[in-house]
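Hey team,

Filing this mostly as a record. A colleague (T.K.) asked me to run one chain through the structure pipeline before their review meeting, and I want the input and output archived in the tracker in case anyone asks later how it was produced. No errors, nothing strange. Just documentation.

Input sequence:
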Amino acid sequence: MTHRKAKLSTCIPELERSRYKNYAKLKTASHEHYQRQEYLQKQEDEINSLADLIEEHVRSRRKEVLGEIETLKTHNKTNFEVFQGHLQSYISTVDTITAAAHALDGQSLDTEEGQAVFVQVVDDVLLNTQQLARMDDVSLEHGVPSDTHGEVFAENLRVDFTTLLGASVAPTNTTLTPSNGDKSTGAQLKWDPQDCHSSLAISQDCLVVTAEKWEDAEIPGGCCNNGGNWVNVCGIASSMVLQMTNIYWEILVTFAILGYMDDNDVITDLGICKSGQEDVYSPLSKNYYCLCCSLFKDPDSSSIAMDFWDGPKNSTSDSVVVRRIRRRKREPLKLGFNVDFHNKMFRIIDVNENSVLHTFEDMRFTQVTAVASIDHEDKVRTSLELESDVDGFPSILFQ
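Output structure:
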């Protein structure tokens, strides 16, 4: 009994310590369990809220589109009724002329009365024929929605979903291709004073950029104070990140060669870059994340030429001569840029010639910014004027 009692007195404290330890574990596990439950409930509530919001957007868009279609149906019905009236009048006029023509065959012209009737009938035929000619130009304007009407609805919905869910929503094939009269999706590109090199000057409207030493000549009225946060490249980016859209803008490049240029000296690089990677490599035409064109002195032709840099492929396309070198002569060159995320293309256009200079196919980027750089400002006086509010896409893009 004494031996058992001694053994029991040793065992009980161990059991109590074990009980306390496991009770603490149970308490911690219970706390974690309730926290997890609360987190999952919060996730469920957020998903339900998001689903309700999406459903509301769908209902709103559906109501909007159905309202437009109903208006078009009414318009189409009215147009048809007007057109039907014109056709009936047309047919009636034809019947009148035909009857009058038949009447002429049996008309006696021996008497003055017969001659007067004949003249009257001929006048009626001529009058009705003139009316017939006017009616023949009447055509029916069908109030039918275009083939892209549903695509516009889907595109608007996808934009809403992007806003709700963030940039993780993948682009779909509902993106519209350019058509005559289309604008650049409403985006107003501007240069960003906070996203450029400190040696560049920017106009107050953030549309013109030049080297700081040419500020007085290129940007009348002063310039914005830029952030100067670029280190590797004397460059600048647009104030807007482009994604899941089809957009077009133009840049007027004006340059004057003032000093001797070495072979392959770059005047400017212009194009697009993966968002957040603009200042990784120098120059832009060596950046792995860039698709751009370069204006440079061609050693073979001793002229100003342009080549095209495909960053992901680490390759440069054959150059094209754009200007011969003329000292101290200001040279304008307007270039157009089209980012088409749907077809995964980026195109560079000679606006004055209305021709595509180069097409980058199988574009891998889903978010880009418009970028540019100005180099060798001690030898070349360069300014870049951004035009994003253009009337429409160049006609060459529809061919």
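Quick notes for T.K.: The mean pLDDT is 80. The chain is about 35% helix and 25% strand.
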